[in-house]
Amino acid sequence: MTALCRLILSAIFALAALGGLEHPKTFMRSVGDYQLLPPGLVPLAGATLPGVEALAALVLLLAVFRVPETPGRWRAAVEGSELIVTGLLVVYTVGIASALLRGFQLDCGCFDFLGEHLPFYKPSKATWWTVVRDLVMMVPGVWLVSRQRWAGAGDR
C-alpha cells in the first residue's frame, strides 16, 4: 500500500511540476491570480514550487523501488517528501476553495499544460469539483503521513 501511495503522489506531482517548469511565466501568473501571497512573494513561489514538486516526486518515485525501511537520511528524505506533497495538497486545496469563495474565476494552474500534449484533455476553470479532486488526491498523502505518525509513536 505504501508503494502504491508513493507512486500515485509521485505521478501527480511530476505532472504538476512539468507544467510549471515548461511554462514558468504562466505558472507564476496562476500563483498570482489566487491573491494569497503578497505580490513580492509571487515570483519566488512561482519559481520554487515546480522544483520542490519535481524533487519530492523524484524522491517518492525512487522510494517505490527501494527497501521501505531504509534507515538514516534516505528515510528522512522520503518521509519529508511525503509530508511536503501532502502539505502542498492541503495548501492548494485551501487556496482554490478560498479563491472560489471570493468569487474568482481562475485556472487551477496544475495540469493545464496537458491540453497541449493530450488532445482529449481540456483545461478548465477551477470549480468546487477541483476542490473535490484535490481532496481525493490528498488521501494517499494523508495515509502516508498518518502511517509515519503512528509508526513514530511506538518509538517513544
Mean pLDDT: 85
- Major beta sheet, specifics? none
Span of the ends, CA to CA: 25 Å
Q: Tell the overall outline.
A: globular
What oligomeric state best describes the polypeptide chains here? single chain
Number of helices: 6
Structure description:
This protein has 156 residues and is mostly helical. 72% of the residues lie in helices and 0% in strands. The chain is built from 6 helices and no strands. The longest helix has 29 residues, at 73-101. The two termini are 25 Å apart.
Q: Which properties best describe this structure?
A:
mainly alpha; about 160 residues; single chain; 6 helices; about 70% helix
What's a concise summary of this model?
The protein is an all-alpha fold and 156 residues long. The chain is 72% helix and 0% strand.
Q: What's the arrangement of secondary structure elements?
A:
Layout: H1 2-22, H2 24-33, H3 42-64, H4 73-101, H5 114-117, H6 128-153
Helix pairs in contact: 1-2, 1-3, 1-6, 2-3, 3-4, 4-6
